[in-house]
Hints:
Elements: H1 5-23, H2 33-45, E1 47-49, E2 51-53, H3 56-66, H4 69-74, E3 82-85, H5 87-93, E4 99-107, E5 117-123, E6 132-134, H6 136-142, E7 151-160, E8 166-167, E9 170-177, H7 183-196, E10 201-204, E11 208-212, H8 213-216, E12 231-241, E13 244-247, E14 254-257, E15 263-266, E16 280-282, E17 298-300, H9 307-317, E18 323-328, H10 335-346, E19 349-354, H11 363-377, E20 383-388, H12 399-413, E21 421-427, H13 435-438, E22 443-446, H14 452-465, H15 472-481, H16 487-505, H17 516-533, H18 551-561, E23 572-576, H19 583-594, E24 597-602, H20 613-627, E25 631-636, H21 638-641, H22 654-672, E26 676-682, E27 700-703, H23 710-720, E28 725-726, H24 732-736, H25 745-769, E29 783-784, H26 786-796
Parallel strand pairs: 2-6, 3-5, 8-14, 9-15, 18-21, 18-22, 19-20, 20-21, 23-26, 23-27, 24-25, 25-26, 28-29
Antiparallel strand pairs: 1-7, 3-6, 4-5, 4-7, 9-12, 10-14, 11-12, 12-13, 16-17
Amino acid sequence: MAIQRKYLFYYISFINYVLKSCFNRRKSLVIRSTMLRDLRVNILFGSEIQFKCVPDNILEKLVTHYYDNITILKHNLEIHNCIFVSQDTLNKLKLNNMQWALVNVKITGSHSLPLSRYNRIIVLDSYKEPECILTSTNLFNLTDCNHSCEVCMLRIIKPLNNFEPKITPKVSVSVIKPLIFNAETQKLLDKILYNYFSLPKCVSVGDIIKLDLKKFYPETEYLVEPTSISIYYIKIVEVEERSVKINLYNCKNKYYISNLHTKLNEVQYSTNAYLPMEKEFAINNLKNVNINNFNDFILNIFPGGMNDEGELIVSMIKPFIQQSHTVYGVNGCGKELLIESVSKYLGIQYISHCCFNWPTNNTTQFKKRIEYFFDDIRKLTPCLLHLENIEALCLSSTKDVEQEILDVFITQINVKTKKPIIIIASANSKDELSPVFLRLFLQSQQVGNLSKINREQLLKWILKRDSVALDNIMIKTIIDHTSGFNYTNYMTLLLLAVKNHMSVHNIKSTDVILEESDIMLSIEKINLMFTKSIGAPSVQVVKWDDVGGLINVKEEIMTALKPSTFNMRRSGILLYGPPGTGKTLLAKAVATECKYNFLSIKGPELLNMYIGQSEANVREVFNKARSAVPCILFFDELDSLAPKRGQNGDSGGVGDRVVSQLLTEMDGMTSENQQIFVLGATNRPDLIDSALLRPGRLDKSVYVGGCNDKESKLHVLRALTKKFYLNSNFHLEDLIEHLPDQVTGAELYGMCHNAWLNCARRVIQKRLAHMNEKQCATDENLLVTEEDFMKAMSECFILK
Ligand SMILES: Nc1ncnc2c1ncn2[C@@H]1O[C@H](COP(=O)(O)OP(=O)(O)OP(=O)(O)O)[C@@H](O)[C@H]1O
C-alpha cells in the first residue's frame, strides 16, 4: 500500500492507539464509528483546532512580551504568518515551537477546502482558551481572501521539518487601500513599503498585507498636512522563483522579500478587493496587556448599546449584491460611526459623501455632478457608499426639478457593476424624504434613542476606547443625569470634562482620572447648550421641597413618569384648580427633579391670526419635543388652546383645527415613543375639549387645590420661608391660627414676600439711625419677626 508520506504520521498514531487498546484489558477493542470518523478526519485533513481572531496590536504586544527582540529578528516572527498556541496545544499537535506547518480552514456549511498555506506555530506560554489565536488578516489569507465565508475551524495539516522559505528576487504588489490615490499618498506608500521590507518578510502569492502608517512611518505625525488614511492594504500579486513567474493560481509557497535582495514592482493589478473582516478592535492604551487579560483590551466594532442596529444593518447588506438602503437617526446619534463599523465588520471598503455638495442653482450642473460622482465610484468597487444627508436631493424649490434630479439618481444607482456598490443613505428622519424617493431603498433602519442600559453600554465603550478613567459608581450617576444623550453628546461631555479637569488641576497630560465635579459641570453646560439650541426657555430651578404640601399631586405625577412593571406609562396629566395654587410651580419642579428636557408653552402663544399658522405652531412644538426626548411638554392655560369644538364664535374654525392637530400629535407621540410626557394646566377644565381628556392623551386629571387645613398651610409656609432667617422665639405654627380658612400658595407667597420687605425696611431704618455707630446691616441682621408677618398678613388678608 502506497501511503503518502504526509499521512504516515497519522497512520503511526492509529497503530499506536490500536496496540494500546489491546494491552488495556479494561477497554474493549471495539472502535466506535465516531472514533473512526475522527481518525479519518485526522488522516485526511489534519487536526482541527478552535481559534479566535485577535487585533494586530495586541498580538504584537504579546509576542514582544514572551520573546526578546533577538529571537523575533532571528526567526522573523511576523504576526500575520503565525498561529499562536499554548504549550498544551503544541504538545497535542506534536509540533515544535516556531515550526512551520501547512494550515487550512474549515468553512461552515461547505465541504470544499481552500488551498493550504504555510504558517508558523508559536507558543505563547500560559495561554488558555480557545486553542489558538491569529490575526484577522492571516485568517482572511487562509480563506483565499473569500469575504463571504464563515470559518469554523483551523486545520493543521502537516508539520514541515526542514522548511525554510526562499528569497525572491522580484515581487509585484498592488494597492488595495486607499482606493483614491494622489501623489502624496503614493509618496507615503513608497516610504511605508520601504520601511516594511527593510527586514525580510515572509509572504505567499495572493496574500493581503496590512500596513499601519503609524508603525511603519511614524514621522508622519510631524507632517504639515497629516493624512487621514492610517491603514494601508497591499496584495502580493506575483513573485519570481528561479526566473519563473509564480502568480496567484499556481502556488501558495512562502517567499522572503527584503529590500536588499528583492526588486519591488507596484502594479495596478486589482484595486477591487475585499478586506479582512474586523469584528473587534483594540483600545488605545495597551500598557498592561498580557496573555491572561488581553480580552479586556478588546472592544466590539459596533459602538456600545448599538449592537442590535449594527447587526440589523449587516443582515440588510448580506449577501453582497448591488443594493440601496437607508438609515435614519437624529444628528449626532452615531449613524456615521455605525455605518463605518458595518463596513469594517463586513470587510468592505468605506466611502462617505455628503450630498449637500451636489446641489447648485443650475439643474444641469446638479445632474452632472451626480453622474460624475457615480462614474468615479464605479471604478472603486466593491465598496460601501455612505450618502450622508440624502435629503439634500429632495430640497428643490419646484417639483419638476426634484423629479429630474431623482431620475438621474435612480439611473445612476441602478447601473450594474461587476462587484457591488452597496449604498447606505442616511438622513435625520424619514419625513424629510419624498415618497417617490423612499421607494428607491430596499430596507431602512432607524437609529433611535438609547435606552438606559444602552446608554450605559455606550458610555463604557467610549470610556474604554479612549482610555478615560472614571469609577463605576460615577457611571451610574452620569447615566441618571443624561437621559436622552446620544453618541455625540457623550463625546462632548467627556471632552468638556477633560478640559475642565486639566484647567482646574493645571495638568498637561491627557491621562486624567475624571472627578464627579468635572462631569456634573459638563452635563449642566451641555443641557444649557441644548435648551438654547431648541429655543426652549431656561426653567428656573425649583426643587420638590420648594413646593409646599400637594403631596398627593407630586406622587401622582412621579408614578405617571416612572415606567410601571408592564412598561406602561401615562402619556399626560391635566392639573386643574383655582389660580395661584402651584400648578406651574409643580411643572417646574418636575422639570428640575426628573432631569428631563422641559418645554413650557402658554396656550395663547401658539394661536396666530394667519390661516394654518396656529396648527403649524402646534406641529413645530411637538417636533421640538421629539428632537429633545425625553421631554416634558407643559401647556399652561390649556383651555385657551384646546376649547370644546363646534362652539359658536370661533372664526373660521381655527380653534377646531388646532384641537384636531393637538389630538393627532398626541396620538403620534404615544405610538412613536413613550419619552414625551404632556402636562396641561388650567383653571377651567370644563372648557377643554373632552377628546383631549380621553385615555391615551391627558388620561388623568389631578385637582390642585388651595390650602384649607393647618398642615398644608404650614407646609407651604415652610417651603416659602426656607431661605428666611426667622427670629428664634417665633414659630410658623403660631401664624396659622390667624390665616383665613381658604388660602392659595400664591397668597401665602405674597404674604411672606411682604413680611420680608417689612423686615428689610425695619433694618434699614435702624441702620440709618445708627449710621454714626458704623453698624452694618448684614444678612444675619435680617431676622424676620412675628410682627413683620402680622403686619404683612393684615395687608394681604382680612384677618379673622
Ligand atoms: N404649594 C406651593 N408651595 C410653595 N409656593 C407656592 C405653592 N403654590 C403656589 N406657590 C407660590 O405661588 C406662585 C404662583 O403659583 P403658580 O404660578 O404655580 O400658580 P398656578 O396654579 O399655575 O396659577 P395660574 O392658574 O393662575 O397659572 C408660585 O410662584 C409660588 O411662589
